[in-house]
């Protein structure tokens, strides 16, 4: 029987047999319990039968390759077969005990018992069977058992027992586990492959013969999603019909691959819902399935960007061809030897030759002969700098007229290609000719301006010179005893002279304004006091006419009216306006007001207004009243006098100062002129002007050299000077002045500028070269009939100490002379401090430098004098640049400023006559100054030699 219950029996058959045996035992036990006591003899036979059956079943359970146990309701073991507990003693001990008791008794882990008891409890709670896989440690590795427990109940529902069995499923479990791991690895590999395909920028898919997608990566899904949106539109929608046609093209290509089993490559369009068209390069190849069917693998790469680039390149190439053939720009290419590689029609037309006749020729052949020598230098520049911009002259074939082109050329270097030059140029001949015409016109305008300036300077000289005599004699005559009639006649002479001088000043001011040479001083002054003093004489004139004169001084609204500006010009504006008011008002009043409009820490904004009750200005004349030489009425000059320049000058001065000038007037009711200026505040520590010294006896005993070619002006100046006790020597020209200066010592020299032969600048240069340094430094006062500030700067740069404009008042001459004669002694001619610092106390080094200077500088000075007198200004500039470090190292006083003024010699290659004269005078004066240093320096070397001897 044991053989019939072999190991091949299934666990289900074993379980059925167990249950059948248990049921049979239960039936027998029940029958035995119901038998009467009288049948004791019969029961004995039944017990024997039950014992036989129990033995039979236990034998079967012992032979089964299954662990079988039976437990009661307290989880105590009622039965365990040898497969459950191999040791008979342990198996016998287990009966009546729990698994926890067993583990404690035999030293097994209690966790094993706790896990089993939890399962028992779960089965009891559910009153059903429970099954699980349990891992049991073993010497040859872990073993796996499938545990099953079944709850067996009595008929009344109470627990009878729990039947449990366990099968060793290690081999099956390990095989299933290996299968699961293989499946997981396969899934991971498939997931990795899908990720790789999804991240691939190409669209990848597989389709069968029915058009069904058997595979598609993420890119393909996204593209399909874009395309399928078109299916929502009506079929009349343009993109929907276009994509339907495109799908037919795709299907035809796949059908061809399935039929021919060949791989094909195509360029496929794909229209988006927006209408944008994408382009894909698609590779299609066949895939044969085991069942013989053929699917198509397609890999599509988006080449839209490349397509756009190709289209752009094609457009660019077309544009380049169009540019070469149709552009007005002059375009060509040439190699690094200058030979033409290509030329566009515009340049060929300019050169008057067909393009094929130009290609291969040297680009230099298109230039005039005198320009071809510089072509090699251009080639070197383009190779070195890779970009060259410039202007080139072109001589077309068969033409004598040059053309001018402005070019920008680039060196083009490409891999595996010979470098070449791309030239892009424009014909600017018309512009060049226009610029030449403009330069010629500008030169003529400048020449005209210079001629006008020279005319004004000559006019100023010619008028001021006799005016100096007229007013000078008038001043002298006023000191004598005159009858009342003679005094009245003298006043007329002086008034007429002053009027003529005022007219001349107005004309000169307008000339300065129109030529842009009107310069403004920037000095600190009290604006209120200055304006009050300026209009005071006009207030007296108004009173003499019987006019009321009202004034509101600026200080009422501005307690600190100290500003920085041109005091004389601001006064001139107010004087012009008040003088006009007095002139054009016969009765009534004149009101002058000064008002502070605004102020900051650094600036004052003020307004001055002049109101009168005069004749007024018609409405149609207001727009023209400020024009040059314009007055409101044609008979104004006859009735009132004047040049018509006062308002023009005032408006120009206000504008140059950044202000505004306004007019309000009504015919017959008077006019109001008001100007507003914003002026910088003066520093708080403004120097107080000292009262002028009028004690003429301070000049008594001084000796003056008067250099003046005009006899009348000499007489006037001499009479002024002699009246002050000054000894005067007169020279009618520069040569006589130089001769007198050599023989006599003077305290001051009065020098006229415009003289025949040797002018005042040249004479000054000769005087400054006197061998005696102290006599060479004699103060020189320029007596000038010119009124331009640049003239005064020229005189000061030439070595003069101060300037006095003709005609001059006696008091002005005195103040100038008094200032010059009381000037502190001149600074030393040189200062060796810096040189000694460089030498670090080595006097031998200092002496060496001085001897070198004494030896070499005279030669350079003579060359400089020759260059200046000959007008060789580039040579003069070179010599000055050469000697400048020597002059500065020796600390030669007064050399730095002339050197700065002469720096423009570097650009003055062709100065006009006036500029040349100014440059020559400055150079000669500098030479004279250095010659004085040369005379004094030997003393330094002698002193050092004597010190070395001692």
UniProtKB/TrEMBL annotation:
<keyword id="KW-1003">Cell membrane</keyword>
<keyword id="KW-0472">Membrane</keyword>
<dbReference type="InterPro" id="IPR036097">
    <property type="entry name" value="HisK_dim/P_sf"/>
</dbReference>
<dbReference type="Pfam" id="PF00512">
    <property type="entry name" value="HisKA"/>
</dbReference>
<dbReference type="GO" id="GO:0005886">
    <property type="term" value="C:plasma membrane"/>
</dbReference>
<keyword id="KW-0418">Kinase</keyword>
<dbReference type="InterPro" id="IPR011006">
    <property type="entry name" value="CheY-like_superfamily"/>
</dbReference>
<keyword id="KW-1133">Transmembrane helix</keyword>
<dbReference type="InterPro" id="IPR008207">
    <property type="entry name" value="Sig_transdc_His_kin_Hpt_dom"/>
</dbReference>
<feature type="modified residue" description="Phosphohistidine">
    <location>
        <position position="881"/>
    </location>
</feature>
<feature type="domain" description="Response regulatory">
    <location>
        <begin position="703"/>
        <end position="821"/>
    </location>
</feature>
<dbReference type="InterPro" id="IPR036641">
    <property type="entry name" value="HPT_dom_sf"/>
</dbReference>
<keyword id="KW-0597">Phosphoprotein</keyword>
<dbReference type="InterPro" id="IPR035965">
    <property type="entry name" value="PAS-like_dom_sf"/>
</dbReference>
<feature type="domain" description="PAC">
    <location>
        <begin position="126"/>
        <end position="181"/>
    </location>
</feature>
<dbReference type="Pfam" id="PF00072">
    <property type="entry name" value="Response_reg"/>
</dbReference>
<keyword id="KW-0175">Coiled coil</keyword>
<feature type="domain" description="HPt">
    <location>
        <begin position="842"/>
        <end position="937"/>
    </location>
</feature>
<dbReference type="Pfam" id="PF02518">
    <property type="entry name" value="HATPase_c"/>
</dbReference>
<dbReference type="InterPro" id="IPR003594">
    <property type="entry name" value="HATPase_dom"/>
</dbReference>
<dbReference type="InterPro" id="IPR005467">
    <property type="entry name" value="His_kinase_dom"/>
</dbReference>
<keyword id="KW-0067">ATP-binding</keyword>
<dbReference type="InterPro" id="IPR000700">
    <property type="entry name" value="PAS-assoc_C"/>
</dbReference>
<keyword id="KW-0812">Transmembrane</keyword>
<keyword id="KW-0547">Nucleotide-binding</keyword>
<dbReference type="InterPro" id="IPR003661">
    <property type="entry name" value="HisK_dim/P_dom"/>
</dbReference>
<protein>
    <recommendedName>
        <fullName>histidine kinase</fullName>
        <ecNumber>2.7.13.3</ecNumber>
    </recommendedName>
</protein>
<dbReference type="InterPro" id="IPR004358">
    <property type="entry name" value="Sig_transdc_His_kin-like_C"/>
</dbReference>
<dbReference type="Pfam" id="PF08448">
    <property type="entry name" value="PAS_4"/>
</dbReference>
<feature type="modified residue" description="4-aspartylphosphate">
    <location>
        <position position="752"/>
    </location>
</feature>
<feature type="domain" description="PAC">
    <location>
        <begin position="258"/>
        <end position="315"/>
    </location>
</feature>
<dbReference type="InterPro" id="IPR000014">
    <property type="entry name" value="PAS"/>
</dbReference>
<dbReference type="InterPro" id="IPR001789">
    <property type="entry name" value="Sig_transdc_resp-reg_receiver"/>
</dbReference>
<keyword id="KW-0808">Transferase</keyword>
<dbReference type="InterPro" id="IPR013656">
    <property type="entry name" value="PAS_4"/>
</dbReference>
<dbReference type="InterPro" id="IPR036890">
    <property type="entry name" value="HATPase_C_sf"/>
</dbReference>
<dbReference type="GO" id="GO:0000155">
    <property type="term" value="F:phosphorelay sensor kinase activity"/>
</dbReference>
<feature type="coiled-coil region">
    <location>
        <begin position="11"/>
        <end position="38"/>
    </location>
</feature>
<dbReference type="GO" id="GO:0005524">
    <property type="term" value="F:ATP binding"/>
</dbReference>
<keyword id="KW-0902">Two-component regulatory system</keyword>
<feature type="domain" description="PAS">
    <location>
        <begin position="316"/>
        <end position="386"/>
    </location>
</feature>
<feature type="domain" description="Histidine kinase">
    <location>
        <begin position="458"/>
        <end position="681"/>
    </location>
</feature>
């Amino acid at each position: 029987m044991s053989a019939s219950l072999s190991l091949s029996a299934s666990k289900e058959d074993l379980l059925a047999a167990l249950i059948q045996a248990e049921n049979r035992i239960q039936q027998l036990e029940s029958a035995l319990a119901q038998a009467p006591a009288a049948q004791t003899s019969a029961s004995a036979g039944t017990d024997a039968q039950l014992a036989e059956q129990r033995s039979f079943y236990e034998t079967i359970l012992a032979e089964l390759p299954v662990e079988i146990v039976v437990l009661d309701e307290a989880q105590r073991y009622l039965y365990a077969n040898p497969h459950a507990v191999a040791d008979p003693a342990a198996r016998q001990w287990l009966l009546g005990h729990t698994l926890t008791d067993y583990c404690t008794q035999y030293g097994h882990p209690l966790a094993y018992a706790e896990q089993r008891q939890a399962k028992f409890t779960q089965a009891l709670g559910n009153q059903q069977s429970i099954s699980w896989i349990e891992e049991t440690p073993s010497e040859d590795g872990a073993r796996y058992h499938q545990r099953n427990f079944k709850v067996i109940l009595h008929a009344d529902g109470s627990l009878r027992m729990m039947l449990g069995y366990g099968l060793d499923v290690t081999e099956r479990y390990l095989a299933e586990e290996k299968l699961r791991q293989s499946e997981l690895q396969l899934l991971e590999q498939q997931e990795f492959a899908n990720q790789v395909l999804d991240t691939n920028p190409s669209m990848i898919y597989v389709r069968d013969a029915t058009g069904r997608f058997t595979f598609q990566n993420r890119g393909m899904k996204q593209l399909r999603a874009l395309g399928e949106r078109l299916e929502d539109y009506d079929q009349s929608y343009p993109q929907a019909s276009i994509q339907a046609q495109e799908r037919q093209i795709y299907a035809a290509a796949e059908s061809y691959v399935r039929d021919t089993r060949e791989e094909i490559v195509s360029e496929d369009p794909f229209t988006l819902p927006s209408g944008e068209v994408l382009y894909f390069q698609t590779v299609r190849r066949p895939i044969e399935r085991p069942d013989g069917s053929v699917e198509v693998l397609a890999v599509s790469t988006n080449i839209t960007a490349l397509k756009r680039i190709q289209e752009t390149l094609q457009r660019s190439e077309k544009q380049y061809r169009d540019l070469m053939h149709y552009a007005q720009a002059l375009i060509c290419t040439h190699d690094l030897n200058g030979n033409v590689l290509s030329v566009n029609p515009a340049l060929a037309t300019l050169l008057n030759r067909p393009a094929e006749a130009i290609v291969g020729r040297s680009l230099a052949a298109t230039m005039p002969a005198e320009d071809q020598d510089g072509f090699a230098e251009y080639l070197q520049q383009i190779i070195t700098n890779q970009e060259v911009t410039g202007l080139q002259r072109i001589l077309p074939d068969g033409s004598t007229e040059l053309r001018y082109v402005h070019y920008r050329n680039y060196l083009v270097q490409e891999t595996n290609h010979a470098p070449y030059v791309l030239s892009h140029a424009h014909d600017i001949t018309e512009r060049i000719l226009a610029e030449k015409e403009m330069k010629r016109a500008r030169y003529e305008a400048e020449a005209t301006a210079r001629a006008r300036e020279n005319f004004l300077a000559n006019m100023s000289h010619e008028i001021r010179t006799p005016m100096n005599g007229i007013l000078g004699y008038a001043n002298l005559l006023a000191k004598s005893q005159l009858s009342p009639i003679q005094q009245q006649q003298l006043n007329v002479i002086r008034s007429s002279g002053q009027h003529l001088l005022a007219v001349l000043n107005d004309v000169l001011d307008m000339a300065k304004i129109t030529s842009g040479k009107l310069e403004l001083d920037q000095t600190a002054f009290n604006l209120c006091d200055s304006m009050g003093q300026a209009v005071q004489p006009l207030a007296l004139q108004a009173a003499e006419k019987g006019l009321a004169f009202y004034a509101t001084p600026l200080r009422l609204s501005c307690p600190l009216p100290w500003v920085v500006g041109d005091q004389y010009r601001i006064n001139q504006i107010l004087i012009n306006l008040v003088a006009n008011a007095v002139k054009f008002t016969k009765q009534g009043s004149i009101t002058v007001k000064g008002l502070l409009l605004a102020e900051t820490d650094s600036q004052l904004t003020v307004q001055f207004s002049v109101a009168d009750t005069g004749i007024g200005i018609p409405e149609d004349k207001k727009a023209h009243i400020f024009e040059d030489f314009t007055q409101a009425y044609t008979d104004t000059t006859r009735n009132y006098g004047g040049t018509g320049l006062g308002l023009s000058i005032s408006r120009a001065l206000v504008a140059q100062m950044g202000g505004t000038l306004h007019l309000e007037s009504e015919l017959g009711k008077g006019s109001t002129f008001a100007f507003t200026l914003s002026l910088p505040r003066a520093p708080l520590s403004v120097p107080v002007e000292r009262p002028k010294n009028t004690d003429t006896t301070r000049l008594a005993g001084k000796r003056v050299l008067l250099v003046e070619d005009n006899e009348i002006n000499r007489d006037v100046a001499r009479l002024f000077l002699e009246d002050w006790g000054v000894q005067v020597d007169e020279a009618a020209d520069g040569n006589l002045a130089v001769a007198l200066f050599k023989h006599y010592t003077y305290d001051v020299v009065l020098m006229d500028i415009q003289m025949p032969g040797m002018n005042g600048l040249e004479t000054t240069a000769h005087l400054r070269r006197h061998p005696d340094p102290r006599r060479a430094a004699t103060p020189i006062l320029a007596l000038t009939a010119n009124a331009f500030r640049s003239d005064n700067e020229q005189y000061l740069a030439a070595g003069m100490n101060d300037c006095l404009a003709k005609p001059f008042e006696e008091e002005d001459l005195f103040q100038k002379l008094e200032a010059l004669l009381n000037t502190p002694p001149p600074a030393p001619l040189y200062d060796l401090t810096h040189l000694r610092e460089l030498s670090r106390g080595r006097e031998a080094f200092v002496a060496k430098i001085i001897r070198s200077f004494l030896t070499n500088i005279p030669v350079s000075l003579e060359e400089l004098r020759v260059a200046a007198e000959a007008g060789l200004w580039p040579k003069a500039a070179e010599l000055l640049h050469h000697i400048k470090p020597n002059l500065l190292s020796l600390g030669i006083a007064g050399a730095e400023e002339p050197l700065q003024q002469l720096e423009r010699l570097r650009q003055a290659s062709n100065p006009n006559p006036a500029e040349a004269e100014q440059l020559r005078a400055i150079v000669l004066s500098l030479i004279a100054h250095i010659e004085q240093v040369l005379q004094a320096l030997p003393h330094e070397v002698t002193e050092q030699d004597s010190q070395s001897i001692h």
